[in-house]
Write a structure and sequence with these properties.
188 residues, rod-shaped, single chain, mainly alpha
Length: 188
């Protein structure tokens, strides 16, 4: 029940990669990071990977962030692991950073899928997000301004009802009320 926005789904665009990533994170309700055996591509002009930079940005933006780390990255096939010592060091440091928050460790794709599913369900309960609204429904949803106007009108009408229920109606002074005696003449 979520719409993923991973980098592999990004279109070609007239924008820098980092600006596009920030925009996607800003528009998302949650940020989920999966850390395997590779550190990732280094972001130009920095010494950290796009993945770590994304993670840092999501945390700084106060997005709910959940992390999933492979429990034994050194057991992954060599093509899925960092070969260079610098890459392994950066990966290790990033893993430590990710583990400063609650995270889950996974051992396989199936294990990861199950843990992501349960974690997202829990995250949606504890941190409800705005989510997406279908375009065909948007027109039937009142605007915030209209909602405020209707609420004010409702409050005004409630006050009128309260006032009317505690006072006699206007223009009834000539009518009898209470224990007054009056004479009725009739013929039978």
């Amino acid at each position: 029940e979520c719409i993923p926005a991973g980098m592999e789904l990004f279109p070609a665009a007239n924008d820098t990669q980092w600006n596009w990533v920030k925009k996607v994170i800003d528009e998302s309700d949650y940020y989920l990071v999966i850390v395997g055996g590779r550190y990732g591509n280094i972001c130009p002009g920095s010494q950290i990977s796009y993945t770590e930079k994304e993670n840092d940005y999501a945390v700084a933006s106060n997005k709910p962030v959940i992390a999933f780390l492979h429990e034994k990255p050194d057991t992954l096939p060599a093509k899925l692991c960092e070969n260079a010592a610098a890459g392994r060091r950066r990966l290790s440091e990033f893993r430590k950073k990710a583990q400063t928050r609650l995270c889950k460790h996974y051992s396989s794709a199936q294990d990861l899928g199950a843990k992501v599913s349960r974690s997202i369900t829990q995250l949606k309960k504890t941190n409800p997000g705005v989510g997406w609204i279908r375009a065909d429904i948007v027109q039937s949803i009142a605007s915030p301004e209209m909602m405020l106007r209707l609420r004010d009108e409702n409050d005004q009408l409630r006050r009128q009802i309260e006032t009317m229920s505690s006072q006699p109606p206007a223009h009834v002074d000539h009518l009898a009320s209470g224990p007054e005696l009056f004479e009725i003449r009739f013929t039978f």
